[in-house]
Specification:
The complex is a heterodimer. Chain A has 7 helices and 10 strands. By secondary structure, chain A is an alpha/beta fold. Chain A has one domain: Rossmann fold (3-Layer(aba) Sandwich), CATH 3.40.50. In chain A, helix 5 runs parallel beside helix 6 (175-191). Chain B is of the alpha+beta class. Chain B folds into 2 domains: 8-57 and 263-404, no CATH class; 64-253, no CATH class. Chain B has helices at residues 8-20, 22-58, 74-79, 89-98, 131-137, 163-169, 200-203, 211-218, 238-246, 255-258, 260-298, 300-308, 313-347, 368-394, 398-402; strands at residues 64-68, 102-116, 121-129, 144-147, 158-162, 176-180, 186-195, 206-210, 226-231, 250-254. Chain B is elongated, with a radius of gyration of 32 Å. The chains are: A alpha/beta, B alpha+beta. Chain A binds chain B through residues 45, 49, 52, 54-55, 74-75, 78-79, 81-83, 87, 89, 91, 93-98, 102, 106-107, 109-112, 155, 159, 167, and chain B through 2-3, 7, 9, 12-13, 16-17, 20, 301-302, 304-315, 398-399, 402-404. Bound molecules: adenosine-5'-diphosphate and magnesium ion. Adenosine-5'-diphosphate (ADP) binds at residues 12, 14, 20, 38, 40-46 of chain A. Chain B: Keywords: Cell membrane, Membrane, Transmembrane, Transmembrane helix.
């Protein structure tokens, strides 16, 4: 087991007090491809932000790799996320000031476990895997949505994280690109032995994942 | 182990942002540059003028003057040889010799006279001096234009003239002129030298001749009218009070009394320099503050992404702060360079002699300290201006931004 959420409750106080997650408990094993499925507003994103340690303001506990993230200081958490968690958003969010290759390299440059050349080699290798090898020197804003999402996946992989979390990664893509991105995430799970959690509406995706968690109004349907 | 915030990666990211908006970065740099340039040029020029006046006026004049008090009406004085001679000279001498703050003092006998050359005749004030004493008060050799200095006054019937006075009399060194004193006595004098202090009001009227000659002609052997005092610490004029209390029969003036306009002028120039420079740097600082604030607002998505992939709040502060610092350092260095060039050009610009000062070119003070101060000013302003937006950047909440709110 790589990740365990224990009785997570999440409230928003603005504009009025509202419970968004209600006693959510779940366990995810290594090398699992799990999809989180549910209507818009059911709390998928909120849950994923908590699972990816971006949001620590919740009740309950989150244990990743046998460590409770509630015991970690903010700076520890940042380093932890840097080394162990890759995140893919619905909007790819590449940095427009940097070219494709630099975007992929950024998390590894922060980790600073390898030198610049090794990181570059690794990044080129990942770009090849996602089929974007020829675009390395292009400014990141000069790519199509599907291409940007593939670069974002390469960026999420650069530090070889144990957990990849994707919040509606295909939400803005056409069917062809959706298939391509999902295939990539599936390959990552199978070939690189990673754990992947995807929030999605897309029935094709959740039908093809190892396990589906369905959310209704902030709770998991059992 | 925590990694240092100042690292290559953060620096690289900062540079990337800086170059991504070349125009704004350039304008911000120019802003700082203008502030520092103005500061340097103004302070070089203003302190140059101050120093020049200090040198010309205060070094050429005594710090404290004791003179005999006028008895009776002023009409009487102008009519006849009724000079205001100084009393209690011996006691004053003792007091001055013993005083800690007195560097040197010199006796003078000063009398009005009319100077007559072959072409012109002019009124003037004649300073009868004791050459050895006076030499300690005024460094006349540095200011000589023609002829000899105080040493020539060891001969009787010699006179030294201010350059403007000499010009109006159309006289040069080694010429002779005639002097008529208020008591009607007249005498032929040899013009031994001509000097210039660079201040029109001095060069127009000042003359030096041997006190002994003047005393003899006035029939006032051993009398003097003034004692000139140079202080060790010019700003401490406590001695003035002592003298006034002890010697009621005399008038005591210090350099501030005699040069009020110059003292005020120096102050005004100081205030002007500091306030204008400060205002300009404030404007430059605001410019940077605005640009950085805007950047942080526009880049909040990037900041959120950087944070989600593992960049800490301190990394973010550094990434944005270093941009301001780079702008500040470059702007300040350019400003110091330009400031130097402009000051240099001014210092070589010929200056028409005005009614007030006589110099060839504008006086400029190239003190290195001002350049260091200007650099520090520019850099500190930009760091302050950059810090608050950077702090704001570090507080961006990635979840809020990624949700697209
Ligand atoms: N910052 C916020 N403040 C207040 N309410 C929020 C905030 N973010 C999300 N919500 C609410 O929480 C609920 C769950 O949102 P979300 O997790 O984004 O759902 P999903 O991703 O499944 O569409 C929604 O009702 C949404 O309006
Ligand atoms: Mg969502």
């Amino acid at each position: 087991m790589i990740l365990e959420a224990k009785h997570i409750h999440k409230y928003f106080h603005e504009p009025q007090k509202q419970q968004v997650l209600n006693d959510v408990s779940l366990q995810i094993d290594e090398k699992e491809l799990v999809s989180v499925f549910g209507e818009s507003g059911s709390g998928k994103s909120t849950l994923l932000y908590i699972l990816s340690t971006l949001d620590t303001n919740f009740k309950g506990d989150l244990i990743i790799n046998k460590e409770s993230i509630k015991t970690m200081s903010p700076s520890c958490l940042t380093d932890f996320r840097n080394a162990h968690i890759g995140f893919v958003y619905q909007f790819h969010y590449l940095l427009p000031e940097f070219n494709v290759l630099q975007n992929v390299m950024l998390p590894a440059m922060k980790l600073a476990e390898k030198n610049r050349d090794e990181i570059k080699e690794e990044a080129l290798f990942l770009l090849e895997e996602v089929g974007m090898k020829d675009f390395g020197l292009r400014p990141s804003y000069k790519l199509s949505g599907g291409q940007q999402q593939r670069v974002a996946i390469a960026r999420a992989l650069i530090n070889n994280p144990m957990l990849i979390i994707a919040d509606e990664p295909t939400g803005n893509l056409d069917q062809k690109n959706t298939d391509m991105v999902f295939e990539l995430l599936k390959d990552i799970t199978e070939q690189r032995a990673k754990t992947v959690v995807i929030a999605t509406h897309n029935s094709k995706i959740y039908k093809n994942s190892h396990r589906t968690i369905e959310m209704i109004d902030g709770s998991i349907r059992l | 182990m925590p990694k240092p915030i100042f690292n290559q990666t953060n620096f690289f990211i900062a540079l990337q942002y800086l170059f991504a908006r070349k125009k704004q970065s350039f304008l911000a740099t120019v802003g700082v540059m203008l502030g520092v340039t103005t500061f340097i040029v103004m302070i070089n020029f203003m302190t140059g003028v101050n120093d020049f006046l200090d040198d010309a006026v205060f070094k050429g004049s005594p710090d404290v003057i004791i003179s005999g008090k006028q008895e009776g009406s002023s009409k009487q004085q102008s009519l006849g040889g009724n000079l205001n001679t100084l009393k209690n000279i011996d006691q004053i001498n003792t007091l001055l010799s013993d005083h800690d703050n007195v560097r040197s003092f010199a006796h003078q006998i000063i009398s009005p006279a009319i100077l007559i050359s072959t072409t012109n005749q002019l009124p003037g004030g004649i300073n009868g001096v004791f050459p050895l004493q006076e030499h300690q008060m005024v460094d006349l050799n540095r200011r000589l234009i023609e002829g000899r200095g105080f040493e020539s006054l060891s001969e009787e019937n010699t006179i030294l003239l201010g350059v403007s006075l000499a010009k109006r009399l159309q006289i040069s060194a080694n010429d002779t002129l005639k002097m008529i004193l208020p008591n009607g006595k007249s005498e032929q004098l040899l013009v031994a030298g001509i000097f210039s202090f660079g201040i029109t009001t001095i060069d127009n009227v000042r003359t030096y001749m041997p006190a002994t000659t003047l005393q003899r002609l006035l029939g006032k052997e051993n009398s003097i009218t003034h004692i000139h005092i140079k202080l060790k610490d010019r700003d401490n004029v406590a001695i003035k009070k002592t003298l006034i209390q002890k010697f009621e029969g005399s008038t005591v003036e210090d350099w501030k009394d005699s040069n009020k306009t110059i003292v005020i002028g120096n102050k005004v120039r100081d205030i002007l320099t500091w306030s204008v420079s400060f205002a300009l740097l404030l404007v430059a600082g605001f410019g940077i503050y605005n640009i950085m604030n805007m950047t942080v607002f526009q880049k909040r998505k990037d900041i959120a992404v950087l944070k989600t992939v593992g960049y800490s709040s301190n990394d973010i502060i550094f990434i944005f702060l270093i941009q301001s610092i780079i702008i500040g350092v470059f702007g300040a260095l350019l400003g110091a360079g330009f400031g130097y060039i402009i000051s240099y050009v001014i210092s070589t610009t010929p200056l028409d002699t005005s009614d007030f000062i006589i110099v060839d070119t504008y006086p400029i003070n190239f003190n290195l300290g001002y350049y260091i101060l200007g650099l520090a000013f520019g850099v500190v302003t930009t760091i302050l201006a950059g810090y608050f937006p950077s702090k704001k950047a570090s507080q961006v909440d990635p979840v809020t931004i990624i949700r697209g709110l």
